[in-house]
Design brief:
With about 160 residues, this protein is an alpha/beta fold. It folds into two domains: about 1-30; about 45-155, Rossmann fold (3-Layer(aba) Sandwich). About 45% of the residues lie in helices and about 20% in strands. The chain has helices spanning about 1-30, 35-40, 80-85, 115-130, 140-150, and strands at about 45-50, 55-60, 65-70, 90-95, 135. The protein has a five-stranded mixed sheet with strand order 1-2-4-3-5. β3 (about 65-70), α3 and β4 form a beta-alpha-beta unit. α4 packs across α5. The longest helix has 27 residues, at about 1-30. The protein is elongated and about 80 Å long. The chain starts with a helix and ends in a 5-residue tail after the last helix.
């Protein structure tokens, strides 16, 4: 019986310590205000555009034929930096952060489906003035690139 009490006490202590640890972690690692993140991570090339209620972070560099680069899930537009350096002398390279990635804020509709992401990307493409362009993506960006190309082959 004494052993059972010791085990129960140890379990209760562990459980309480875990809960306290989680609460401390949630307090310490709480959300950072968007303004603070922008001040820290936006570059001189960073631009922001409102598309269908979403404040989208993007970069538009270089001149020439258009290229749109779409990042992976859990990534952001800086993942394309080496490509931009290689392409921007000959191409206009545009890249955007998807909703809730990088410096792009959340979607006020709370719709994070592929259909909504594609719709926002279509509106973004129109807003930056691309008529015919090349498109590339990786992971979710690749999926959006393929779906966009299938829907608008005349623009690619």
């Amino acid at each position: 019986m004494k052993t059972l009490r010791i085990i129960a006490y140890a379990f209760a202590t562990f459980f309480i310590a875990t809960i306290v640890g989680i609460l401390i972690a949630l307090w310490v690692y709480r959300d950072i205000p968007a303004e603070e993140l922008e001040a820290k991570y936006a570059s001189p090339e960073s631009r922001f555009m409102n598309v269908d209620g979403v404040r989208i972070h993007y970069r538009d560099e270089g001149e020439g034929p258009g290229v749109l680069l779409l990042h992976a899930n859990f990534g952001n537009l800086i993942g394309w930096d080496p490509w931009v350096e290689a392409l921007k002398d000959s191409y206009r390279v545009v890249r955007m952060d998807f909703t809730s990635h990088g410096l792009t804020g959340p979607d006020p509709t709370d719709d994070y489906t592929l259909e909504r992401t594609l719709a926002l990307t279509e509106k973004f493409i129109d807003a930056v003035g691309f008529d015919r362009f090349s498109i590339g993506g990786t992971s979710i960006g690749g999926t959006i690139a393929i779906r966009y190309t299938a829907k608008h082959p005349e623009r690619i």
